[in-house]
Amino acid sequence: MKVLGIMGSPRRRGNTDFLLDEALKGARSGGAEVEKLAVEELEIAPCREIYACLKDGHCSIEDDMQQVYPKLLEVEGLILASPIFFYGLTSQVKALIDRCQALWVMKHRRAAPAKRKGAFIAVGATRGERLFDGAVLTVKYFFDAIGVEYSGDLLIGGVDKKGHIRKQPAALAQAFALGKSLVPGDTPIPDEDPPR
Q: 7, 41, 169, 194: which has the highest count of C-beta atoms within 10 A?
């Protein structure tokens, strides 16, 4: 089994990054092969709504998203992690999601894929009552568009300073458990370290 972690924060070694790393460790401990994708390091243009993808499910914009599409199609587990900016996802990860209109088209032109599971990790600085509502809804629709079941999340408010989450062992343990929950119980553990 393969689990892909998408790191949607523009800040490396921050709270979102640490939580995603723990979730991927959890998936690996359950026997999954894991890969981490940092969206900030990719050149992904926003969707231009030219609808070239309606022909055959392939986006006509030539950028790093062309490398991301196969990864999104081949994995059995997906973890999307993003800090909350103005009650929503970062612009980096939102561009990736918007470009998945092509996969939505493709989904309706091919046989249904095997059941796949996905999880969402989000960190916000404030403790607003509805801080995560918009982001959760966006991620649920994203997962549905690419044929992934939204199977859980870890939503943590009141965390802002870089690396502050490392002082919250309960949150790190929850991230680990969330990652592990994506993996069926009988998957053998691979010997090699996960790719970075």
A: 7
Q: How far apart are CA 164 and CA 15, in angstroms?
A: 7
- The candidate with the shortest Cα–Cα distance to 100, out of 149, 46, 137, 39, is 46
Mean pLDDT of the chain, nearest integer: 91
128-141 as b/e, with b when 16 or more CB fall inside 10 Å? eeebbeebbebbbe
Supply the pTM of this predicted model: 0.90
CB 188 within 8 A of CB 134: no
Q: Where are the domains of the chain?
A: 2-181
- The whole-angstrom separation of Cα 57 and Cα 78 is 21
Residue 5 in tokens: 């972690």
Euclidean distance between CA atoms 34 and 49, whole angstroms: 32
Q: Is 39 exposed, middle or buried (0-12, 13-18, 19+ CB in 10 A)?
A: buried
Domain spanning 2-181: which CATH class is it, in words?
alpha beta
Inter-CA distances, 30 with 20, 80, 159, 194, Å: 15, 18, 28, 13
CA 181 to chain centre: 15
Residue (of 181, 62, 174, 165) closest to 118 by Cα position: 181
Tens digit of each residue's pLDDT (9 = 90 or more) over 142-168: 999 999 999 999 999 999 888 889 999
